Amino acid sequence: MGRIQLDHLTKRFGDTVAVEDVTLDIEDSEFLVLVGPSGCGKSTTLRMIAGLETTSEGNLYIDGDHMNYRVPQNRDIAMVFQDYALYPHMTVRENVRFGLEEEAGYTADEMDERVEEVAADLGIEALLDRKPGELSGGQQQRVALGRAIVRDPEAFLMDEPLANLDAKLRSQMRAELQNLQADLDVTTVYVTHNQTEAMTMGDRIAVLNDGSLQQVGEPLELYHEPANQFVAGFIGEPMMNFLRGRRSKAGFAGDFLEYPFDDRLADVVGDVDDLVIGIRPEAVDVRRDEDESAPLGDHEYRMTVTVTETHGDQNVVHLTHADAASDHDVLQAVTDGMHVVEAGESVVVTLDPERIHVFDGTGGDALC
Ligand code: ATP
User: Fold this and answer.
1) What is the CATH number of domain 4-234?
2) ipTM
3) Which of 170, 203, 328, 355 is the most exposed place for a label (fewest CB within 10 A)?
4) What is the pLDDT along the chain (368 residues), one digit of tens a residue?
5) Judging by DSSP bridges, how do beta strands 155-159 and 77-80 pair with one another?
6) What is the rounded CA–CA span in Å between residue 278 and residue 256?
7) How many A from CA of 31 to the centre of ligand 1?
8) Rounded-to-integer distance, Cα 314 and Cα 297, Å
């Protein structure tokens, strides 16, 4: 069992509200990723769960037991940090074993046996007699995981555990961590500011901004149905395009383009005046403008390519519009790698109404 419940948790440091009224129910065995920009309160939330910070308001429960006043050692959880927090003077064996020594009820032989078992699971048997200084970053991270796993806790709390690894190793360790978590079947709360890590690892993702929980959901739910403009912009790479404007007779009147609403969009927008429309770069269709005098359809616009970034499998195309206030890019599109449009080229861009998001321009809430 390892259900973790945050019930209206708030944490203040003097006048700073680091975490504000967060309610979150993390299920047993779930892999929950807490994600958000720097300073949004991720680490503070994790540290409250661990018992390393007190709570200012609200209640914390693990498996139904009230935790607010329980010391970290008695919460039956293990934490893994970004900087690994290994003891440099101890060998790997001693570091991993250290995780057990605080636990009552193990004989020395049992501890040794358990260390060997965990080392085998993590593929670090050959490193057991080395010191942390003699290990690569990835190996140190495995040892830090070993120290957490060895105790067989109810939950793992991980604070940016892969942040110090290079990109290739990070992606490899992401997959390993997911497999490990699935094998161990232990509730895991994983903090990152990296939305790719969140999307690929989490059973569910909780997005924080300015201490407040913005949305909790499965990765694709957040991607397709963001609750507000913040989540829409945070999840997805390249980020969603946003165009600001007002409700008009036909639908939406932006700074430089009109976007007619069909019945569905008109219905969800209702009488909200201040609007932002959003569309993901991969939902922006770009085609060569074969005939510049040809009339355009309802959701088509003539634009000019400013830059094309080629990534091999795909291209990111930056676009500007003749009526845009200044000459800056107004949209980004992702196109197939084989479909290259050059800087300076005139193109026809289609913004599919089925894939348009509309936000309340004042509060940022998603209208659809
Ligand atoms: P990062 O991704 O940069 O680590 P974070 O999302 O983990 O950021 P927190 O470390 O939880 O954010 O910090 C949230 C807010 O609380 C920040 O404004 C931070 O400056 C503040 N804060 C955190 N710890 C303390 C502290 N011990 N004393 C005062 N303010 C703090």
Assistant:
1) 3.40.50.300
2) 0.98
3) 328
4) 799 999 999 999 999 999 999 999 999 999 999 999 999 999 999 999 999 999 999 999 999 999 999 999 899 999 998 888 899 999 999 999 998 887 778 889 999 999 999 999 899 999 999 999 999 988 999 999 999 999 899 999 999 999 888 888 899 889 989 999 999 999 999 999 999 999 999 999 999 999 999 999 999 999 999 999 999 999 999 999 999 999 999 999 998 899 999 999 999 999 999 999 999 999 999 999 999 899 999 899 999 999 999 999 999 999 999 888 776 789 999 999 888 899 999 999 999 999 999 999 999 999 99
5) parallel
6) 15
7) 23
8) 26
Torsion of CA 54, 57, 60, 66, to 10 degrees: 90
Nearest CA to ligand 1 atom 25: 13
User: How far does the centroid of ligand 1 lie from the alpha carbon of residue 19, in Å?
Assistant: 9
Whose structure tokens read 């593929």?
Answer: 123
3-class SS of residue 297: coil
Name the maximum alpha-carbon separation found in the chain. 84
Distance 192 CA to ligand 1 centre (A): 13
Ligand 1 atom closest to 36 (CA): 6
Name the β-bridge partners of 349: 286, 301
Domain chopping of the chain, boundaries: 4-234, 241-360
- Contact between 242 and 252 under an 8 Å Cβ cutoff? The reply is no
Residue 224: count of CB within 10 angstroms of its CB: 14
What is the residue with the minimal CA distance to atom 28 of ligand 1?
13
A 10 A CB-CB count for 32 gives: 23
Handedness of CA 227, 233, 239, 243 (dihedral sign): positive
Looking at CATH, the fold of the domain delimited by 241-360 is given as OB fold (Dihydrolipoamide Acetyltransferase, E2P) (2.40.50)
SS3 83: coil
